[in-house]
Design goal:
The chain is α+β, with helices and mostly antiparallel strands and about 375 residues long. About 60% of the residues lie in helices and about 20% in strands. α1 runs antiparallel to α2 and α8 runs antiparallel to α9. The N terminus is likely disordered.
Amino acid sequence: MTERKAGLGLRGVFVRYVGRMFVTRFIGLLIFFIVILQMLDLLNNSTEIYAADGADWRSIVNYIALRSPQIASQFAPFAALLGVVATLSTLNQRSEITIMRSAGMSAQRVLRPIGVVCLMIVIAHVAFHEFVVVRATERLSYWEANDYAVNLPPQKETRTNVTFANGEEFIDAASAAREDGVTHLDDVIIYKLNDDGLAETVEEAERATFQAGVGWVLENVRTLSVLGNEVIRQASKPWETTLDPAILFAVTLKPERTSIPTLLAQIRELRRNSASVSNEMTSLYSRLSKPLATLLMPLLGAIAGYGVMRSGAQLMRAATGAAIGFAYFVSENLMLALGKLGAVPPIFGAFFPLAIFLIVGIALLVAMEN
């Protein structure tokens, strides 16, 4: 009985030891990614930030505060993968895994503390993305659209860089805003398409305004007939279109800048009007599938901790574990893109790579156990 208690105590010490080792490496790698990528990002954008009137070092600090959460959310699973590889490689180099396996611990028991920490990271990742990243992304996009202006007023219900198709029209606008029941589109270009999908006429307007009971009105309009090569200028004219402002704001809502409740409302609005929701549904599912990838990393990186310790063999196993994880991220991005385009069902695009690599990870773990 005394020996059994001693064994359980040893295993408890090992679990805490491995958990702390993984947490330390994960946090260190995540900070490394944030610092390096933030520096590279600033090299590309610092000139535009300082070009705004009155910009100073506080503009740079504000940019870092809004951009860093995006980097942290994006690279958390990759930091977890490298953290797993580094942790297990260190334990194998010190023969600590061999000792614990000799003491009767299975490969699953060795990986359990890392899995528990990864589960905590997943929960924190979901909450962090929903309450921090979404808001930071929305504010940063609004700031970028206004050329990093200093003392920018609070954002209203506004869309920037609006581009979408509506029936036989293709519409491009610099911005769309809605206030007190009135909808405005600024710097509008309307392409009227024929049955072959080619532009017959192009209308450019300084502004398009929608009011209930009045409809759409274009201001300062210039109409170009592609076939007749004729330009007609008008101070204003009615815009004969089926464009619904509610659909306009639902279609142009960016999922990455949207909270889950707002995204669900957008999906309901689009479905009510029989519009495609592939992009929105895939983005919704990815809110869960991307953080869940962290739970997959102990399985994909486990190959780094098992096998006979030889010169060069450990490095090869660590590189193999990292390569398998990198292959997962490539396939994840590919399937998400296909899901957003509607080429595959949204749930398939979000969770198929997770399911396939889960099977691969379990197969590797069973092979190492045997």
